[in-house]
């Protein structure tokens, strides 16, 4: 009799445990609430939305040759740069996206800015700015930088310039030098491959404070800077006629714009140094648009990303492959700037 009661208790306990397991398996844990999307809409039609955390891989293989003066990529693999060494400039080439660099030729190093613009893997131009003792020069190569020919000297419109000019050739004939003066922008254009240059009228900057600008053609460009009326507001301007800036958007300012690039009419990229006080180091943001400046996503860099603040530049030959560099380091991305890899040690 006792054995029978014990068996019944065992059966009841077993059934209870099995039912408890069924109840546990049939109940799902509540899924986490999605991160709310922060949207700031401009009355001019530009919207700022929250993005994601930018990843930066700081592990790199040590390299001996790195560009320190200029950089120009024509696609995701092929790029060209200049490295300064005493009184010489070494012209460098990469065919693996900037992981390794090979010296191709040497030219005399001048104190002024040295800039590169390559159209493809054969044809490129090198601009050297004027100094107190030397005139400006423009060189052309048609053999991937093995030899260079001086095709123009003493280019017009460079008087009173400050900072590094914007320099780019858009095809075999049309090129642009955009020169910043104290109050104006001077556009210096060529339509014969760099042999002769014409100077535009002085174009007033839409912002009193320093901003950043880039160009898609000799007449179309973008400018980002603080508002004249309110420094807490960031303004976006678009030029389509080579003469005037038109408002294209505005948002609450996250910080100071440092570098900008547009790969085409739709895809643009903007590096921002955030406004921080009492914090060691600087915080950085990466803004990206895929609809011609109507919407920009805000993406946060990790605290380990600490580039040199001077001479920061960014370049995207297409909508996914891009490079960010200062006077010391070079980073590359293959996804529009959400993941960066340090290419120099």
From TrEMBL:
Signal sequence range: 1-25
Keyword Disulfide bond: no
Highest rank taxon of the organism: Bacteria
Keywords, comma-separated and alphabetical: Signal
InterPro entries: WD40/YVTN_repeat-like_dom_sf
PANTHER family: PHOTOSYSTEM II STABILITY/ASSEMBLY FACTOR HCF136, CHLOROPLASTIC, PHOTOSYSTEM II STABILITY_ASSEMBLY FACTOR HCF136, CHLOROPLASTIC
Protein's recorded name: Photosynthesis system II assembly factor Ycf48/Hcf136-like domain-containing protein
Protein species of origin: Paenibacillus ferrarius
């Amino acid at each position: 009799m006792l054995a029978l009661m014990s068996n019944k208790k065992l059966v009841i306990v077993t059934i209870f445990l099995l039912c408890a397991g069924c109840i546990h398996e049939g109940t799902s844990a509540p899924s986490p609430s999605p991160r709310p999307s922060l949207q700031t809409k401009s009355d001019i039609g530009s919207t700022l939305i929250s993005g994601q955390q930018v990843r930066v891989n700081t592990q790199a293989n040590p390299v001996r040759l790195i560009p320190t003066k200029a950089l120009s990529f024509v696609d995701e693999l092929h790029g060209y740069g200049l490295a300064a060494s005493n009184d010489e400039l070494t012209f460098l080439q990469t065919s693996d996206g900037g992981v390794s660099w090979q010296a191709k030729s040497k030219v005399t190093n001048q104190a002024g800015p040295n800039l590169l613009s390559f159209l493809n893997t054969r044809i490129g131009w090198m601009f050297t700015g004027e100094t107190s003792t030397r005139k400006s020069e423009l060189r052309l190569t048609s053999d991937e930088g093995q030899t260079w020919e001086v095709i123009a000297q003493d280019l017009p419109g460079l008087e009173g310039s400050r900072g590094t000019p914007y320099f780019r050739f858009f095809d075999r004939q049309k090129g642009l030098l955009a020169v910043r003066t104290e109050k104006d922008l001077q556009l210096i254009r060529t339509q014969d491959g760099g042999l002769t240059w014409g100077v535009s009228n002085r174009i007033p900057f839409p912002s009193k404070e320093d901003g950043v600008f880039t160009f898609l053609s000799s007449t179309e460009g973008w400018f980002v800077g603080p508002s004249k009326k309110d420094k807490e507001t960031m303004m976006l301007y678009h030029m389509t006629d080579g003469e005037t800036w038109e408002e294209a958007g505005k948002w609450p300012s996250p910080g100071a714009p440092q570098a900008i690039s547009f790969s085409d009419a739709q895809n643009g990229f903007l590096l921002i140094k955030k406004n921080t006080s009492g914090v060691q180091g600087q915080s950085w943001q990466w803004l990206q648009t895929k609809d011609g400046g109507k919407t920009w996503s805000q993406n946060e860099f990790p605290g380990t990303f600490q580039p040199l603040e001077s001479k920061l530049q960014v370049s995207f030959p297409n909508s996914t492959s891009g490079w960010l560099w200062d006077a010391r380091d070079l980073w590359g991305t293959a996804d529009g700037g959400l993941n960066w890899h340090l290419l120099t040690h």
